[in-house]
Amino acid sequence: MTISGLEYIKRIDSLNNEVWINGQKISGKISDHPAFKGILKSKAHLFDMQKSPLHKDLLTFRSPSNKEIGFSFQQPKTIEDLQKRRIATKLWSKTNAGLLGRSPDYVNSGIMALGVAHELFGKNDPKYGTNILRTYEKAMDYDLTFTHTFINPQVNRSASYLEDSSSNIIAAKVVKETSDGIIIHGARLLSTQGGITDEILVIPAGGNFIDESYIYAFAIPSNTPGLKFLGRESFVLNDSPFDSPLSSRFEEMDTVVVFDNVLVPWENVFLYKDYNIAYSMFTETNFNTLLLYQAVTRMIVKTEFILGLSEAIVDAINIGEYQHVKDKVSEIIVTLEILKGLQLSAEIQAKENSWGTLVPDAKPLNAAINYYPRIYPRLVEIIQLLSGSSLITLPTELDFQSPVREYIDLYLQGANSCAEDKIKLFRLAWDFCMSPFGTRQTHFERFFFGDPVKLGIGLYNGYEKGDYVNFINEFL
Known about the structure:
The protein is an alpha+beta fold. The chain has 17 helices and 14 strands.
């Protein structure tokens, strides 16, 4: 059943998750904390949209038991299902300009992919299949939100490094089995929105399959005893929508997840010590492909925002007559059209998998995820180049309430706007590309789906090139 935004916030507050920031454990309502209140309100708005008569038909579907369920949990079986999913994702993304990399529909898509493929996990032991199906059904029934983690801490990234089990445990692993469940100890990265979701999805981290104590997958409540979320410094500089129009609302927070001898009940475990399933689960369930389908939609919205912001800057300081300006904005247009084309290609070439899910073609989506991390820093640079000194001379909201306002109104006015409107626009641009929040966005996109070089190697290795080589041979 879908929930309201207020229900979501009350539920997260009631969990009392163990979240640490600036050396202090958060006490009281996390929705009142300066680092989290903005993002929680923004997420709450998404839930309210599901309840709105204006959007409910698009953002929900009816389950076989006639329950109203959020769209991201629906298994797409037709091209119309995929298109509805894309349009719904875009609607949600436009509320945050594509800046929420972990809006609820992202991990929900993965939960759906795993849940409908439950027979895979129960192939050798039926209980594991039952467990992931139960997780999926519970997520739908309660409109749960998830963070997820599948990366080990970067202690030593050399190719030959293997953690010595006799030393202090760093990467989270199973240290004990009991009749109640498995005991996990160690840490995982990089849990965006850790501590402000109902549950955490933990899936295998690559590179550790040599030791079966690292082969596990489960979902547990975020307030499970021993589970700690260590947040980085918050990038919310203040809660003024004038000074920080983006970071005050969309700062997601990234956390290190510490498992301090956490008991994971057997009923929450859906993969354990099974090498074959651990290696094949992402391919067999199309987990990554369905996440990418959501992500590329978000990237398109973000690029539309960048295009609109760039053109607004051009108009504000009247630089549209210059050839180099038009050339720069054209780069953004090309990026947008490439992403739209890749998404459309993935959609129209979708095929049904073994579990009855209509899955978009992975090749165009993988091309998009290789392309965007490389082009995104250039898009940010274009905004900086178009803006020039206007990103430096930025009064604050309080300056407009001070005796010096008359100077600001005179000297910082725009070509076609008053100073306040011009500054509001350029503070938006600054928060997007130069504030701590903005630079984190650039870094996030660079590494959104992993190391760009590894992504390129994966695309090369997995792309069928034989027909093209045959074409050359025949031509010769």
